[in-house]
Amino acid sequence: MTEVDDARARILEKAEQSFLAHGYSRVTMDDIATELRMSKKTLYRHFSSKEELGEAAIVAILARIGEELRALLEDERRDFGERLEAFTRTLAGHYGRGAAVLRDLQRDAPALWHKLLELRRQAVQERFGAFVAAGVKAGVLRSDVEPRLVIRMVLTLVDQLLRPDVLVELEMTAEQLYPRMLGVVLDGIRARPGGPPPPANKPRGTRSR
């Protein structure tokens, strides 16, 4: 890693920490420079504005989440139901930890909010699409259902439900909503050869014991 890369990585790490701890709107470039004991001139050499830094932080965070989900998908030590449960728990957990920042972006930084939505749609198409394919291959999801339709349904639900304002309206957390949302979709496409439905208090997608 070059000196420039190292400085950029340090800035991004501090920005992510600050945004998560205090919210996007309350953090200034001065705050980040002070925390890093770095001159504002140096900071602005790497990121020309707070918006550029915010976008870079969003891209970095979503990339890490994507890698985490990819590793879950490829973990063949778990059956499909266990991977689905971990997949859902991971996504909901990250959303929950970033809830305050997301409210901030939706309210005060619409350009960044729309950028996040765009990147989130791409991630859902890629990661959930791979997950559906794995479920069909494992015989857990119906092979006669068009995967693109399922992905489009999930994209629509994510866009319409996983939003700070909607969560407040529904009086639910992301951790509560995400598994229920996926359960509604997966209960309609999962192959169940005469087996009983899973218990109501059990995460959807897990196998009955």
Automatic annotation (TrEMBL):
Which stretches does the entry tag as region Disordered?
Answer: 189-209
Instruction: Please give the organism.
Output: Cystobacter fuscus
**MF annotations from Gene Ontology:** DNA-binding transcription factor activity; transcription cis-regulatory region binding
- PANTHER family cross-referenced by the UniProt entry: HTH-TYPE TRANSCRIPTIONAL REGULATOR BETI (PTHR30055:SF234), HTH-TYPE TRANSCRIPTIONAL REGULATOR RUTR (PTHR30055)
- SUPFAM superfamilies recorded: Homeodomain-like, Tetracyclin repressor-like, C-terminal domain
Keyword set for this entry? DNA-binding, Transcription, Transcription regulation
Any idea which residues the entry calls the DNA-binding region? 28-47
> Sorted alphabetically, which PROSITE patterns does this protein's record hold?
HTH_TETR_2
Name assigned to this protein: Transcriptional regulator, TetR family
> What residue stretch is flagged as signal peptide?
none
Q: Which Pfam families match?
A: TetR_N
